[in-house]
């Protein structure tokens, strides 16, 4: 359907024809079956995804709120002043995991799980702002993703430094516009008995893992519209006791879980920003391949239900769930992905 054939109220949203957000409203009409089938055929011909019964996107005219009815996969619309006759959008549930054109900031993106997260987010269409202290490694990750067609910028950032966090948020907004998703992944950890470790190691761990999560969130939120999401990467050790002495890491990750609940309480109802935590167990990464790896594997084998380390893709799916509209009714929650480790503690 070319522009001349379109009814005056037909338009697509700024972020894609199947996304319903603050930038658009659903202009729902009562269609007979002929018009319905013709419209759906036209959308398919134009190259749009097909799992859509009918909802026509129009410029801001009527504000319609989406709601889900238990037992249905249908997204229905209602407003105090407009009550359409049971018009329905039938979405493929997997479409709700897409982040096409959404701007996502990922901290700690130069290595480990952060690199895997960046790759997974790029695969679902996100525009990426990658942040870390190790700039050369960050640039290498960005170049790889650009080679796969992703839009990516990098920004050297120490999350424990407030000015760096503010600069990161501004750089993201300048490059891509409003920030839709923030992944607070930057973190460090070091094992050692509390009576033997240098207290400065404890302070540094808390500064990066907990204070850094707070500072980056605080810097980004003014640039985040309603409907955005924050995912804080905590740890299974934030909700259960460690089998190895690492007071700073455990305290900081427990703090991230508490911070997540509080920021959700502050920002979800007032600003429309969901805040959740992802709590990984033990995954194959640079950290778990370091000193003490064999003892760690033996502990996981003996005490977790699945008896093994997790793999990056097994965590990526949980991250995409929390970052995307798929988890639109979740906030203040901590999602544990640990192979059943905490079930046995």
Mind explaining what this structure looks like?
- The chain contains 8 helices and 12 strands.
- It has 345 residues and is an alpha/beta fold.
- It has 2 domains: 25-91, no CATH class; 96-344, Rossmann fold (3-Layer(aba) Sandwich), CATH 3.40.50.
- The longest helix has 25 residues, at 247-271.
- The protein is globular and about 45 Å long.
- The N and C termini lie far apart (60 Å).
Offer a few descriptive terms:
345 residues; alpha/beta; Rossmann fold; seven-stranded parallel beta sheet; three-stranded antiparallel beta sheet; 8 helices; 36% helix; globular; disordered N terminus
Helix-and-strand structural type = alpha/beta
CATH class categorisation of the largest domain: Alpha Beta
The main β sheet shows up as: 7 strands, parallel
CATH topology of the largest domain: Rossmann fold
> How many separate domains make up the residues?
2
Helix fraction, binned, reads 25-40%
CATH architecture of the largest domain: 3-Layer(aba) Sandwich
In spatial order, strands of the major sheet run 8-7-6-9-10-11-12
Measure the end-to-end span. 60 Å
pLDDT < 50 stretches: 3-83
Query: What's the order of the H and E elements?
Result: EHEEEEEHEHEHEHEHEHHE
**CATH homologous superfamily label of the largest domain:** NAD(P)-binding Rossmann-like Domain
Which shape, going by the Cα principal axes?
globular
Say how many strands there are: 12
Q: Could you tell me the radius of gyration in angstroms?
A: 22 Å
Strand content: 15-25%
Mean pLDDT: 81
Number of helices: 8
